[in-house]
Design brief:
The complex is a heterodimer. By secondary structure, chain A is an all-beta fold. Chain A is built from no helices and ten strands. In chain A, strand 3 and strand 4 form a beta hairpin. Chain A is globular. Chain B folds into two domains: 65 residues, Helix Hairpins; 204 residues, ATP synthase, F1 complex, gamma subunit (Pyruvate Kinase, Chain: A, domain 1, 3-Layer(aba) Sandwich). Chain B is built from six helices and six strands. Chain B has a five-stranded mixed beta sheet, sandwiched between helices. In chain B, helix 1 packs antiparallel against helix 6 and helix 5 crosses helix 6. The radius of gyration of chain B is 30 Å and the shape is elongated. The chains are: A mainly beta, B alpha/beta. At the A-B interface, strand 1 and strand 5 of A face helix 1, strand 6 and helix 6 of B. Strand 5 of chain A pairs parallel with strand 6 of chain B, so a sheet runs across the interface.
Chain lengths: 85, 282
């Protein structure tokens, strides 16, 4: 099972893909979520979100914001975001 | 029929034609702009809806703050347009605002966003703050400026409830004033098992601020889309009316011209007849 990652900004959807693992940083420290994680809402730091899919890593810069995960979908809302690689 | 009347009608036709050029241009401007706004609004909508969903999940039970309890006076944020010539758009909003403010017992005042609203309530003691010609395109800077003011009033002036009056966009032809509650925040289906990082107490203020700015920006966006559709419709009607008026006036002009020609012919013929009679008699 994979987890869907969706990153939204006021200018539209920046990223929407599936992954095995999502790493990010909250204002209190680094975290990672796997599929079927218990529901969580976090306050993100200005940092990179890393989506790992079959060994491939993709990085998306976000300007803070909030992340919500319900075990199937990770959705991020941020005032600005950009796919780095 | 006198020459003077003919000239007067011709002048009227010219004036109407010039007016029609203006209304037509304004209609086209509104049409071009509404497309731009609608595209941006669509992109923003997805973002705002996601934040709305998150808000629903955040547990607000047991947090003692006027943001959730709603203890205190009520203020209304009234979103109108800065410019006129958009039909009944502003007058309907102002009417709703007047009615709504009379209905609320602990009403404290208006925050007017848009020049039309602030001009209308300028002399009223209920105008707390006016934002005029602040934006054409709603940005997060503008909405956070207004939210800052609201938060300040919640903290220092005993405000607990905030309503927003804006123009809801139903479709291209229908835009209606709508009243919604911005504060207190309610979350009906909050998830008891939800985890928070950092803790909900630490996060809630930031989240509420984030939520309010995005919500307000969303409403301002919707109001703008409504405004431009209202303007487009109003200007289309004006152009149609001008066209109809030109048609009637031209008809009237031609009738008058015809009548004056007929009159002249009759005069000439009568003159000729008279001359003939004189000649025959002589």
């Amino acid at each position: 099972m994979k987890i869907k990652v969706k990153i939204l900004t006021p200018n539209g959807k920046v990223y929407e893909k599936y992954g095995d693992l999502v790493n990010f940083r909250t204002v209190e420290g680094a975290m990672g979520v796997l599929p079927r994680r218990a529901p969580i809402i976090t306050h993100l730091a200005v940092s990179d979100i890393e989506v790992v899919n079959e060994g491939q890593r993709e990085k998306i810069k976000v300007a803070g914001g909030f992340l919500y995960c319900d075990g199937e979908i990770v959705s991020v809302v941020s005032s600005d975001a950009e796919v780095v690689s | 029929m006198s020459r003077g009347k003919l000239r007067a009608i011709k002048k009227k036709v010219e004036a109407t034609k010039n007016l029609m050029k203006i209304t037509k241009a304004m209609e086209m401007v509104a049409r071009a702009k509404v497309r731009k706004f609608e595209r941006a609004f669509k992109a923003f909508k997805e973002y705002a809806e996601e934040i709305e969903r998150m808000k629903e999940k955040i547990l607000v039970k047991g947090i003692e703050s006027p943001l959730f309890t709603g203890a205190g006076d009520t203020i209304i944020i009234l979103i109108t347009s800065d410019l006129g010539l958009c039909g009944a758009y502003n007058s309907e909003l102002l009417k709703t605002a007047e009615e709504e403010s009379k209905r609320i017992a602990d009403f404290k005042g208006f925050i007017a966003v848009g020049a039309k609203g602030s001009t209308h309530f300028k002399k009223s003691k209920y105008l707390i703050k006016a934002y005029e010609r602040l934006y054409d395109f709603p940005t997060v800077e503008v909405s956070s400026m207004i939210v800052d003011k609201v938060m300040d009033m919640v903290k220092n002036d005993g405000v607990g409830k905030v309503k927003v009056i804006y123009s809801e966009f139903k479709n291209a032809l229908i835009q209606r004033p709508k009243v919604i509650d911005l504060l207190p925040l309610k979350s009906e289906n909050a998830d008891e098992n939800m985890e928070f990082e950092p803790s909900v107490e630490k996060m809630i203020d930031k989240f509420v601020y984030f939520y309010l700015t995005s919500k307000l920006q969303y409403l301002m966006f919707e109001a703008k889309v409504s405004e431009y559709y209202a303007r487009q419709n109003a200007m289309k009607n004006a152009t149609d009316n001008a066209n109809e008026m030109i048609r009637t006036l031209t008809l009237e002009y031609n009738k008058a011209r015809q009548a004056s020609i007929t009159q002249e012919i009759i005069e000439i013929v009568n003159g000729a007849e008279a001359l003939k009679e004189i000649e025959e008699a002589g």
